[in-house]
Specification:
The chain is of the alpha/beta class and about 240 residues long. Helices cover about 45% and strands about 15% of the residues. The chain has a single domain, classed as Spore Coat Polysaccharide Biosynthesis Protein SpsA, Chain A.
């Protein structure tokens, strides 16, 4: 990586928006497919993958837990004393993202990249691509195969995100439309995949199975266990 690219990334804040994995909370669509206990285990593996991304980021790191009561838990997830903990606040996901964004900009942060804990095929390449594109665009997204997004990035305040169709196949299109209506330019980073259903686990398996990062290898191993199909699970 060239010096100016590293400098740009070091000035970009990476935010992990996450929930504390808990039985019967979160990943309900996945739980309907594979059961609540298996869904909890998958959620724990997915969080470990996201933390892997956060750990290797050379810029400022932020963990945004869903509840203020989870701040102590969040503070123990990374071995980085400089990582910030910013609870999400209340409301739907859009309102919570606005809250996080406003708080970080109040602290002087400018270029921000948001990820969740359901996109295990993300890599440093995806994140650095988003950071680079923020030089040109006000907002940058990574499209997910289901019509959502795996990365949201911005260099200025988000518009009001609370009325968007979160968790639907029209999210990305609606998000881009809202930004353009708010006079914000829109760019796209490398696309990715997220995990909401059992078939999504099957979809990400080939890439995870060839990924040498420990959390990805552990998730691939667990997917084999869930589907009991050896090295190459099939639906």
């Amino acid at each position: 990586m060239m010096g100016h690219e590293l400098n740009l990334i070091q000035k970009t804040t990476l935010i992990l928006v996450c929930k504390k994995p808990t039985l019967c909370q979160g990943k309900q669509r996945l739980a309907a497919d594979i059961g609540t206990e298996e869904a909890l285990t998958v959620a724990q593996h997915l969080l470990a993958c996201a933390l892997e991304d956060l750990s290797e980021w050379p810029g400022q790191k932020v963990i945004a837990p869903s509840h203020e009561s989870d701040c102590e838990w969040a503070s123990q997830l990374l071995e980085d004393e400089h990582a910030l903990i910013v609870p999400q606040g209340s409301g739907n996901l859009g309102a919570r993202l606005n809250h996080i964004d406003n708080e970080l900009r109040r602290q002087g942060k400018e270029s921000l990249i948001y990820i969740g804990s359901d996109s295990p095929t993300l890599s440093f390449r995806h994140l650095s691509d988003a950071a680079q594109r923020l030089k040109t665009y006000d907002t940058v997204f990574s499209k997910a195969s289901d019509g959502g997004v795996t990365i949201m990035a911005n260099r200025t305040h988000w518009p009001d995100l609370s009325n968007l169709p979160w968790s639907t196949e029209s999210l990305e299109a609606s998000l881009a439309k809202l930004c353009r209506q708010s006079c914000l330019s829109v760019g796209y980073a490398l696309s990715g995949q997220d995990v909401d259903h059992s078939e999504d686990l099957l979809g990400v398996f080939p890439e995870l199975n060839s990924d040498n990062r420990p959390a990805r290898r552990a998730l691939a191993k667990h997917i084999r266990t869930v589907f009991k199909q050896g090295d190459t699970p099939h639906a």
